[in-house]
Amino acid sequence: MKKMRNANRLFVVPIIAAFILGLIFMPAVLPMVKMHPKQLPIGLVVDDEGEMGTKLADALQTNAPELVNFTSFDTVDDMKAAMDEREVYGGFVVPADFSNKVMTLQTDDPEKATVQLYINEGANPQAATIVQTALMNIVTMLNAQLSTQMLMAVQEKVETMKKQLAPVLQAQGANSPFAQMGEMLSPIPPSKVQDFANPIQSEVIKVHETGNLSNAPIAYLMITWFTSLIGAVVLYVVGNNRSFASKTDKWKFHALQSIMPFVYALVVGYVATWYSTWILDFELEHFNRVALYLAICVAAFILMIFTTLRWLKFPSIIIFIILMFFSMSAVQLPPEMMPAFYRDYIISWLPIRIYADGLREVLFFSKDLINHYSVILIWIMVIALVLLWVKNIVEKPKATES
Fold it and tell me: Exposed, middle or buried: residue 280 (CB in 10 Å: 0-12, 13-18, 19+)?
């Protein structure tokens, strides 16, 4: 009877789980559910020194939508350098001939003014899409404003001409064929209607293009993280409560435990990269570089998880399972699209965020295997190995079973 009463208590486990898991996982998906893009950094270069260019630059900075935040650069090269460092997600360039071309729209030889819209695709695919849409909307808004200004200017000229012609036409009499000429004057010649409706055209220039690799960080994430978890658990289970016949056997086994993460990492790195080219049709410029970067990630993650298990025991594995859910938004979203708390206190230290940014660096930016992010991962490996061997040294050996 007592066993039955104890068993009945298990009925409350799902209720407790609902409270605990809800408290854990709801904040994890908060950034993706409550996306609110705000103040996405955009570069602004105004090479046009004419009045029109100056007014346009002032209008962009003072009346820009909340979605974007313009940062001025002296040259396009300076702006591109900021794109290389992922400081801006796009750029708006007003060429040197912008004012002159706008003025030609009221002449017999019109030329449309062109602004250049730069999209930093490799920085983040979602941010790139949002920025391109936002910049195109800004061009549409500028077209409407400039078109209205030009129409008003032309209308003023027409009204002036009507006033000047009025005495002459009135002198012709009401029945004169010239009497209605004033009403027939058109503010815009038919051939220029389209130019006046859309005086500005845009040229979209994509930098650090992603091609079919825009979602590569998501594609490689599962195999990278879960094989790291499995590898660390296997190393822990195999060595947990293990007894040794001699100190030599103990050190040999611990040496093997320290080597196996690198073996696992190389296998996972090359298998994952091969699968991506075979199943997902990824076209990789540097196959080995991608495979080795993934191997660095897996080795760092296995050692980090395994060392944690050695010090905090097996229940600590829950930390890394939860970490997976908290990291999904870090892989997909730019910081500017995340809630302030998540952006300021969580994303900066997430290891999976380091993996994703480093992979983008390898695929779309410097394309170097050893970059800022891979160096961080190497330091994680080194620290984890040091802590692991400290544990190996201080842990008391277990007696050999007879």
Answer: middle
pLDDT at 261 over 50: yes
Q: Outline where DSSP puts E strands in 160-300.
A: 200-207
CA separation (Å) from 324 to 235, 243, 301, 330?
Answer: 20, 33, 12, 10
User: 0.90 exceeded by the pTM?
Assistant: no
Report how far residue 125's alpha carbon sits from residue 54's, in angstroms, rounded to the nearest whole number.
32
For tokens 């093997």, name the residue: 256
Question: Looking at residue 41, what is its pLDDT?
Answer: 93
Q: What is the Cα gyration radius of the chain?
A: 32
Backbone dihedral angles phi then psi of residue 130, each to the nearest 5 degrees: -65, -45
The DSSP line for 249-267 is: HHHHHHHHHHHHHHHHHHH
* Distance, CA of 355 to CA of 373 (rounded, Å): 7
| 114 closest CA partner among 128, 100, 133, 130 | 100
Q: Which residue has the tokens 């080597």?
A: 259
pLDDT tens string 183-207: 544 455 544 555 556 778 889 999 9
Torsions phi, psi of 203, nearest 5? -120, 115
Residues shown for the chain: 402
pLDDT-above-90 percentage for the chain: 47
Write the pLDDT tens digit of every residue in 312-340: 999 999 999 888 887 877 788 888 888 77
Q: How far apart are CA 224 and CA 294, in angstroms?
A: 7
Query: Which amino acid does the sequence have at 34?
Result: K
C-alpha triplet 385, 387, 393: angle, nearest 5°: 100
Return the closest-CA partner of residue 306 out of 228, 250, 221.
228
- Under DSSP, is residue 114 helix (H, G, I), strand (E, B) or coil? strand
Q: What type of residue sits at position 318?
A: I
- What residues contact 341, with CB distance under 8 A and at least 6 apart? none
Start-to-end CA span in the chain (Å): 41
Coil, helix or strand at residue 202: strand
Q: Which element (helix H / strand E) includes 27?
A: helix 13-33
The amino acid sitting at 249 is: D
Closest by Cα among 397, 351, 396, 398 to 374: 351
Residue in the structure block whose two tokens are 């799902």: 14
Long-range contacts of 243-252 (CB under 8 A, 24+ apart): 243/397, 243/398, 243/399, 243/400, 243/401, 244/397, 244/398, 244/400, 245/400, 247/397, 250/397
Instruction: Judge contact between 101 and 48, C-beta under 8 A.
Output: no
